[in-house]
Amino acid sequence: MPDRYAVIGNPVAHSKSPQIHAEFAHQTGQDLAYERLLAPTDAFIATANAFRAGGGRGLNVTLPFKGEAFRYAGRLSESARAAQAVNTLKFEGDATVGDNTDGAGLVNDLERNLGRAVAGARVLLLGAGGAARGVIRPLIERQPAQLVIANRTLAKAQLLAQSFRGGIEASAYAALAGRQFDLVVNATSASLTGELPPLPPGVFARGALAYDMMYGMDETPFLAFARAEGTATLADGLGMLVEQAAESFFIWRGVRPDTAPVLKLLRQATA
Ligand code: NDP
Question: Percent of the chain scored above 70 by pLDDT?
Answer without folding.
Answer: 100
